[in-house]
Amino acid sequence: MRTGNKESIGIMLEILLFVIAAGCFIYFFTILSYAGPTASLVFMWLILGIAFTGLGLFLELDKRYKLLQHVPGFVLVIIAIVLCVGIILFFVLFGCVISGMNKKPLKKVDYIVVLGAQIKGTNVSRSLGFRLDGAIEYYNENKDTTIVVSGGRGPDEIATEASVMRQYLLERGVPDEKIIVEDNSTTTKENLEFSKEIILNHCKSEKLPGVAVCSNNFHIFRALSLAKALDYESPEGLATGSDEILLFNYMIRDSLAIFKEFLLGNI
């Protein structure tokens, strides 16, 4: 490749890295101002912004001082392979998240399992509100369906998620006899595992009836993958909305969570 072409590609790569870095910094400050420093993965965007800036500066220094010439070729090959594998894996996982974002039950179900999420005092968070509203909408169209609210009490919560979810449903017209509370789980896997046991006891059957798993759109692929691994028979997905500003952040988080569940052997 000609020297001029290499320099042009190098300049374009630098610009791309600095643009990505700027995007990361902007998103970091957006999340920080919108949801505060306790928002999930918020500081990841700051770290990424610094990292991409550092890479861009390194390329600029390499143009001047030929730093890469001092690095053994096999090391560069290994780094390139690791980066390529990481990028491909990320896009595969991100694609998995996207694939579940529009799931709706294809058939009528007997139970809806609404997965818990963080509560604020005795009020539901925005994410949890989306999930519950989606379950209510389905229930209003299918009155024979029973809603299972699933979620225990987190370390920074004053009540169980399930109890707050139940109250939310009652205030919006769902009869108490159509609500089942599962209030011991602390993870998505436990949500589904404990809810399965309760449903089997409730319907007095050894075979699980039709079940839909209800959660925010970014969470559905992972939730359904866990449900299938826990022997739910053809679980349906009921994807609800999510916070538009935080959606991309949540999608990244769930991509990483899918990889984690795979490493743990949960899916």
What do you see in this structure?
The chain is α/β, with parallel strands linked by helices. Helices cover 58% and strands 11% of the residues. Helix 7 links the parallel strand 6 and strand 7. The longest helix has 33 residues. It is elongated, with a radius of gyration of 23 Å. The protein starts with a helix and ends with a helix.
**pLDDT averaged over residues:** 93
Taking the sheet with the most strands, its summary is:
5 strands, parallel
Number of strands: 7
The first-to-last residue Cα distance is: 45 Å
Report the principal-axis shape: elongated
Radius of gyration: 23 Å
Helix-strand makeup class: alpha/beta
Helix and strand sequence: HHHEEEHEHEHEHEH
Q: What percent strand?
A: 5-15%
Spatial arrangement of strands, main beta sheet: 5-4-1-6-7
Tally of alpha and pi helices: 8
| Percent helix | 55-70%
Unreliable stretches covering 5 or more consecutive residues: none
